[in-house]
């Protein structure tokens, strides 16, 4: 349903049975009254606000934040929170409520944490537009609007990730050097495209670097050339299929991991592991 009053509008998910993860519950926008206060209270869902204009105070986890235009604040389920609009310059803000098992990891990966529940964005239009699009998707009541809203939420969180510049994966490790970043991209390319027709030229073009330079960096950081890395990767994937897919022939396994010639697959398999694919399958299955 959609509820609209002067200075206040909220649209709820019209098809809550079409579950997605994350699952958007409702979204809205409000021009609050001076001194408008919420809480102290707890919510059973995540609630993300973005301040368009005005100012106020947000309190959570023993911390107090003074927020202005361009600021956003996150409310976490079961966390005691309160927030109050300024008496002279009350808030005008958007909000979106959502839930799902994937949400904690999503929020952590873009930089939102219990100790860092706020973000500031200089490009007001970019963030506000995402909130508006989530609300509009519900307001239009399209049959697949829950999926559209979830997609818009992903784009919104992506924008916050660019703001906060933080990732639980990245911050857990030392910062990458430019060379390490290039090699990581090359490894990602090979591990996702190994079953396709890969050449070093296409990989270098995809990563955006000269082939010779890329090969040199790759060897320095992995101890292997990209060609050797790819060959071992394909053989390892072939071993997995030999163990797990008894219904596949040796030729089908070879084709599935990027070898167009099953004899070449068998030759390289024997060279690396000392036995033929057929013998390997017999040993591992029996």
TrEMBL record:
One Pfam match, by short name? HTH_18
Ranges annotated as spanning the membrane: none
The answer, when asked if Transport is one of the entry's keywords, is no
Q: Which SUPFAM superfamilies match?
A: Homeodomain-like (SSF46689), Regulatory protein AraC (SSF51215)
Any idea where the HTH araC/xylS-type domain is? 184-283
InterPro entries, per this entry? AraC-bd, Homeodomain-like_sf, HTH-like, HTH_AraC, HTH_AraC-typ_CS, Tscrpt_reg_AraC-type_HTH
User: Which GO-annotated molecular functions does the record name?
Assistant: DNA-binding transcription factor activity; sequence-specific DNA binding
Coiled-coil annotation: which residues? none
PROSITE patterns named among the record's database cross-references: HTH_ARAC_FAMILY_1, HTH_ARAC_FAMILY_2
Entry keyword DNA-binding:
yes
Q: Which UniProt keywords apply?
A: DNA-binding, Transcription, Transcription regulation
- List the protein's name: AraC family transcriptional regulator
Q: To which species is this protein native? A: Paenibacillus albiflavus
